[in-house]
Design brief:
Order of helices and strands: EEHEEEEEHEHEEHEHEHEH
CATH architecture of the largest domain: 3-Layer(aba) Sandwich
Distance between the termini: 29 Å
Largest sheet: 7 strands, parallel
CATH superfamily of the largest domain: SPOUT methyltransferase, trefoil knot domain
Radius of gyration: 20 Å
């Protein structure tokens, strides 16, 4: 049985030749963490839909086994695009980011809500590392985008940005709201909107303020429920990510 190859993500701008110079952290990961030796093989991905098999060289380089312009695998960008806009929790924000990447979210937009108690978001270098490690672990070919934090009112005060005005506002303690999975089921994007996607906005532990919720409703955001129980914001984000990913996969199936 062939041995499963571990992955290393190197951004496209560093891929200009068949031999790729590794940065110290990458060489450490391959040599010390994965215990690879010169000549051992691994998969190299660029986070933009392409994968090559590669070998570790004596000089801490990665030697591609396929031509740079003819990768072993190539995949178009995910469609429809799936986005979570969320107020990050006080604890375990790193874990939350990893989980939604593994579940297939393509864009993460941290929000500063009126009732936020957690951080705005990880430092840029830390956020990039979290996403890179999650992509390597779950074997995605496309690296998600982590946007800079913005005020919740800046996002909710505009018409929903994706899918012909399709923006979903996760709410709780309201009767009669459609369940997210029920609302998603009949949606079948057409050719003109397949690449635009859906965005689900999730508030902080204390929920949206009346001003935030009212602003979103005025701009056409659709309130939805994630179930009959009151969820922590991190649980709500993971639940929404799983439902969105399942919906997209059902379109392919």
């Amino acid at each position: 049985m062939a041995r499963e190859l571990r992955r290393l993500l190197i951004p496209p701008e560093r891929l200009a030749a068949q031999v790729v110079a590794l940065e110290p952290a990458e060489a450490h990961y391959l040599g010390r963490v994965l215990r690879l030796r010169p000549g051992d093989r691994f998969d190299l991905v660029d986070g933009a839909g392409r994968l090559w098999s590669a070998k570790l060289s004596q000089g801490n380089g990665a030697v591609l086994e396929q031509p740079l312009q003819a990768p072993l695998q190539q995949q178009g960008p995910p469609a429809p695009l799936l986005e979570l806009a969320l107020a990050l929790p006080r604890r375990d924000a790193d874990v939350l980011l990893r989980m939604v990447v593994e579940l297939g979210i393509d864009r993460i937009s941290p929000l500063r809500a009126e009732r936020s108690v957690g951080p705005d978001g990880p430092r840029p270098e830390r956020g990039a590392a979290i996403l890179r490690e999650a992509v390597e672990q779950c074997e995605r070919l496309w690296q998600p985008e982590l946007r800079s934090p913005v005020a919740a009112t800046a996002l909710l005060g505009l018409p929903p940005p994706h899918g012909a005005g399709r923006g979903l506002l996760a709410s709780s303690r309201k009767l009669g709201l459609p369940l997210l999975q029920e609302l998603l089921a009949p949606l079948v994007p057409g050719p003109a909107t397949a690449g635009e996607g859906l965005v689900v906005a999730i508030g902080p532990e204390g929920g949206w303020s009346p001003a935030e919720e009212g602003l979103a409703l005025e701009q056409g955001w659709q309130p939805v429920s994630l179930g009959p129980t009151i969820l922590r914001c991190s649980t709500a984000a993971v639940a929404a990510a799983a439902l969105l990913s399942h919906w997209r996969q059902s379109l392919v199936s």
